[in-house]
Amino acid sequence: MDHIHLMRVFVAVGELESFAAAARRLAISAAAVTRAVGALEESLGVKLLLRTTRSVRLTEAGSRYLEDSRNILASLREANEAAAGVNAAPRGNLAVTAPMLFGKFFVMPCIVRYLQTYPEVDVSALFLDRVVNLVEEGMDVAVRIGPLPDSGLKARQVGQVRRLLCASPDYLARHGTPRHPSELAQHALIAANGVGAGLEWKFREAQVPLSVRVKPRLNVTSNDAAIAAATAGLGIAHLLSYQVADDLVAGRLRTVLEDFEETPWPIHVLHRESKYGSAKVRAFIDLLVSMLGEHRYLN
């Protein structure tokens, strides 16, 4: 049996953790899926999946083989595209992910220009305030804000943003301006879980990291909601500079404790490493890097 076919079947089962779901994805019978996985395990001489009547999960060897198989199949697709001349011009589907407000403010203008330039490309944009796994969720390009963990992904830094505290002039007039992070306990605080807010907010004092435990009066899952609450005068919010840049310029918000801010967070554009590359990915990344690198709110 074709080994590449066996790998495709195994990847579907491993990702979906279900023989039946894999059969539906591949449009083949469940029996064919079972035979393919069995043939693959026999040829390798190792157990890749643990199967019970209720669940399917990967063995340790299966987890490693799943990742290797994904990379092999991705390289095969790209090699076929290159040989067929698909890389001559961007075409096909491009999947992009970014944080929600960042995607709205900065990535969408790039996507619009990209689609206007390359009529044979369709784009799927996933804007979420969580880390999206490029491989598992089928993304081609991602924008990440903050320090990057070690990974097999290629990354290009395109700017940086500050994590800052801000409040409305009205709130500060009524409650005063804190002079030190320790004074935050005396204020109404607004936390946005979307930017990693929690019980500790991080600062720097004399170049030394400083963490302060906080008890937010309002805890929301949307940065938009936190900004609305702050501009309405509810309290002091912990947000990223690009999210409130227009409100700061317009005077609806003011920053506080600027001397204690963390080191600015880098912004990276990430994509999966590829031997052959892809014209649609290369063209989008080049455009995105160019547009983000020129933006005043990100540098």
UniProtKB/TrEMBL annotation:
Similarity-based family: Belongs to the LysR transcriptional regulatory family.
Keyword DNA-binding: yes
A Pfam family this chain is assigned to: HTH_1
Biological processes, Gene Ontology terms: DNA-templated transcription
Keyword set, alphabetical order: DNA-binding, Transcription, Transcription regulation
UniProt source species: Pseudomonas putida
Stretches assigned to the HTH lysR-type domain: 1-59
PROSITE patterns according to UniProt: HTH_LYSR
InterPro entries named among the record's database cross-references: LysR-type_TF_proteobact-type (IPR058163), LysR_HTH_N (IPR000847), LysR_subst-bd (IPR005119), WH-like_DNA-bd_sf (IPR036388), WH_DNA-bd_sf (IPR036390)
A GO molecular-function descriptor: sequence-specific DNA binding
Gene3D superfamilies referenced in this protein's UniProt entry, alphabetically: 3.40.190.290, Winged helix-like DNA-binding domain superfamily/Winged helix DNA-binding domain (1.10.10.10)
Descriptive protein name: LysR family transcriptional regulator
